[in-house]
Amino acid sequence: MKYCIDLHTHTIASDHAYSTIADYVHQAKECGIRMFATTDHGPSLSDAPHLWHFNNLKVVPRIIDTVAVLRGIEANITAEGGIDIPKRTRDGLDIVLAGFHPNLPPADVRTHTELLLKVIESGEVDIITHPGSVHYPFEYRTVLEAAREYGVAIEINSSSDVNTRFGSFDNCVQIARLAAELGNIISLGTDAHICYYLGNFDHSQKVLNSSGIADENILNTDPLKVLDFLESRGHKRIDLLRKFFSDRT
Description:
Blueprint: E1 5-9, H1 21-31, E2 35-41, H2 51-55, E3 63-64, E4 67-76, H3 87-91, E5 95-99, H4 109-122, E6 127-128, H5 140-150, E7 153-157, H6 169-182, E8 186-189, H7 202-209, H8 223-232, H9 239-246
Parallel strand pairs: 1-2, 2-4, 4-5, 5-6, 6-7, 7-8
Antiparallel strand pairs: 3-4
C-alpha cells in the first residue's frame, strides 16, 4: 500500500462518529494501514469528548495487534488564533491537528488568514486540516509560505467534497498545486468517522494527481518519516515505535 498511514480519524468519543479504536485496528489490518492517528475533535465542539479523554490517551497501547496507534487530537482553532486545549494536554499527545470548525463562525479571508498564521506560528499545531473548506477561505500563498517556514504540514483531506465540505475540490487542487510549488510538507488524512473509511485515499489521490506533489514531501509513505516529523515538531521520541518499524525495514 503506497500510503500506509492515516493521520486523521475519529472514534465514538466524538458523538457523530461510529467506530472504536479497536474497530480501526481491525480495519487497519484488513486494508494494509500500518499506523493511524486517533484524532477526535477538541472539546469546543458540542459533541466532542471531555478534555479528560485526551489527557488519558496514555492508556492506549502504542501497538495493538501489529498496528501502531498515535495518540492525538483534531483541535479547534479559536477566535484568538489559538487551539482549545491547554499546553499540558498538548505536550502529552503524539500529534496535534487543528482546523476551522463550527465553534468559530465563518468570517472573511483576512480574518481566517490571520488566525491560521497565529496557529502556525504558535508551534502548538503540527498539521492544518481540510484547508480547502469553502466556508473558511484564506490567502493561500501567505499561509502556505508560513507553514513551510515553521515546518507545519498541510493536509489533503480525503473526506472533503465526498462526505462533507462539498464544493471544496477545486480549492483543494489549488492549495495542493501551490504546496507543490513551495515544497510544503503534506499530510494525508481520511478524516474517517467510521472505520471502514480508514485508508481510503481515493479522493486525496485525485487531488495529488492534479498537483504534482512529490512523494518525498508526503508523510504517509513511511512510519519512520512520520516519527521524524513529529520529533521535529517538539514531540517526545517514541522509541518503541522506532524500534518496531526499524526492525521491519
